[in-house]
Description:
Elements: H1 23-38, E1 43-45, E2 55-58, E3 66-76, E4 80-85, E5 95-100, E6 102-108, E7 114-120, H2 121-134, H3 145-162
Antiparallel strand pairs: 1-2, 2-3, 3-6, 4-5, 6-7
Amino acid sequence: MQIITLGxxxxxQKAEKIHIIDDEIINTAKQMLVILKRDKGVGVAGPxxxxxxxxxxIHIEGDEExxxxxxxxxxxxxxxxxxxxxxxxxPGIYANVIRSESIKIQAWNEKxxxxxxxxxxxxxxxxxxxxxxLEGVIFLDHVPEKKRDKLVAKYEKSQNRDNx
Length: 164
């Protein structure tokens, strides 16, 4: 499995609900966690690997690996913070993004068990970033247009240089 990068239309599509947590979903979650380690990321969502289903996995150093299936963000705080983000689908590009400082999210794990967590700080940020991927949104969409255009041009230039 490879990470799909900026420019591929799949990143702009909304992921579909998972109706049954079967072996395919469980194996996909395991493979996503392998990709996360391999590519040294903290989160990866289904659309980023060409799997248009509502699933993402996260692993922040010092915390447990987590699988989120059919997640719903129930609450977001009015308090926000700015933090530099990157994305496995936009390698080499980083930008400050403003997000809610804390959230409450409900999802199902890979065993089909529902859970609800309240998250703050980096965990909340990573969850929001990965949730965005399920909605066809990338982190650059949260950046002012002029800055975004410059970052996309920088990314495209780096990709052209890598492909020559």
